[in-house]
Fold:
Amino acid sequence: MSELTHATSHERYHRPLSGKVMSREIDAQLNLLRDRVLLLGGKTEDAVHRAMLSLTTRDSELARRVCDDDKQIDQMELEIDRLSVEILAAEQPAEHDLRLVVSVAKITPILERIADHATSIAEAAIILNTEPQIDSYVDFSHMAEMAAGMLREALNAFTAEDSAASREIIARDLTLDTAYGRVFDGLIGRMIRDPASANGAARLLFVAKHIERIGDYVKDICELNVYLTEAVFIKHGAVH
Structure:
């Protein structure tokens, strides 16, 4: 039995609970839920960092470990999903607590998708590391650091329920988009000037796109942070 399943065992929900005991029960469950999301977020951020490091240092063994560790992240997502469902089914959370559970249920698959992008970068690194290096990767490292920093700060904003910080991170995604455009133009130019490098440059274009998508997913997390804190939806520019 997993730790989460043990901590939320079905049997205890059949005991009659007073209001105060019920409150302590749901507080404990929500704290566990927050802790698990932050642990998953940390694993995801680390996957992004290590995937880029495997590319910039041409470390294929590190890239393979990133790919292998993705299974653990998938399992963590499933356990958080299970805990979220159990809270909704048994605890009847109040309005804010309900928003927390809903936000977590949406944030968790976003983190898993970010980890999938990290795995794709690692897979590209395994191939690129067998070929001559066509660029210094300085811009890629800058983009990856920016995306990983946004993710870290988005998780901090989730913990603090800081909607102002979340809105600032959303605005910062424009800088990442600009960096992606610069890398894209540079690689296309390289392919035109040196057709022999086209295959490697094309793979690097996909790497750059993976990093840009990570920034988009961080925006989604921040939008959910605003929903959690302010009970408003700001996705696609909507405020309601």
Notes: Residues 16-237 form a domain with the Methane Monooxygenase Hydroxylase; Chain G, domain 1 fold (CATH 1.20.58.220).
